[in-house]
Amino acid sequence: QSALTQPPSASGSPGQSVTISCTGTSSDVGGYNYVSWYQQHPGKAPKLMIYEVSKRPSGVPDRFSGSKSGNTASLTVSGLQAEDEADYYCSSFAGSSNTVAFGGGTKLTVL
Amino acid sequence: QLQLQESGPGLVKPSETLSLTCTVSGGSISSSDYYWGWIRQPPGKGLEWIGRIYYSGSTSYNPSLKSRVTISVDTSKNQFSLRLNSVTAADTAVYYCARRKGGSYYLDYWGQGTLVTVSS
Fold this sequence. Notes:
Chain A is mainly beta. Helix content of chain A is 0%, strand content 44%. Chain A has no helices and nine strands.
C-alpha cells in the first residue's frame, strides 16, 4: 500500500481540464513543500512535471500546474492534449521516515 | 545533457543478491548540489523509493528495505551502485537510478530503467 493516496484513474476530453489529487498526512504532504509530480508513458522512465508543490521545470508546458491545501496536493492539466495520456505519480518528503514517499499513481485518459 | 544508465544482470535467483550500477555521464557525481537515488517499479505497479547516496558516501534508505539494501558510490568512475540481498519474487521490478536535488526532494533526471526478474 502506497504512503500517498491517489485516485486510480482520471479522464477528460481534449481541451478540458482535469485535476488529480494526492492525499497524505501532516508528516509528509501537509508538513513540507516538497511535493513533486511525475508523468510516465508506457515503457518509459518517469518525467518530472512539477516540483516543490507548484514549480515547473524548464520545458514543461504551463498547462501543468500544482497546488496544495492541507494534507492534499493537486496536479491540474489544462487544455488536455492526446499526449497527456499517461500515468501520473505524486511524491513527497516523508519526515517520519526521512525518506521519499510516492503515491500509487493515476492513469489519465484523454477521451 | 546529463544522462544516467543502469546496468546489471536481468535475472537473479531467489535468496541471492541483486547488483546494479548506474553510470552518470554529462555531469559529475561529485557535485555538492545533488544526491543520487534508486527507485523501483514492480510490473504494472507504482514507484517505490529505495534509497539515496551523496558523493561523500552518506546514505539514506527506505526503512522497509533498509536491512537488505546497500548503496555505494565510486566517484572515480562517476558511478553509484545498488545491492539488494536475499531477494524474492517480490523484488522483481524495473529499477531506476535518478538524480535528486540537494535541499529538496525531487528527481530531475532518470535513467531508462532496467528490468530485474527474480526467478530460479
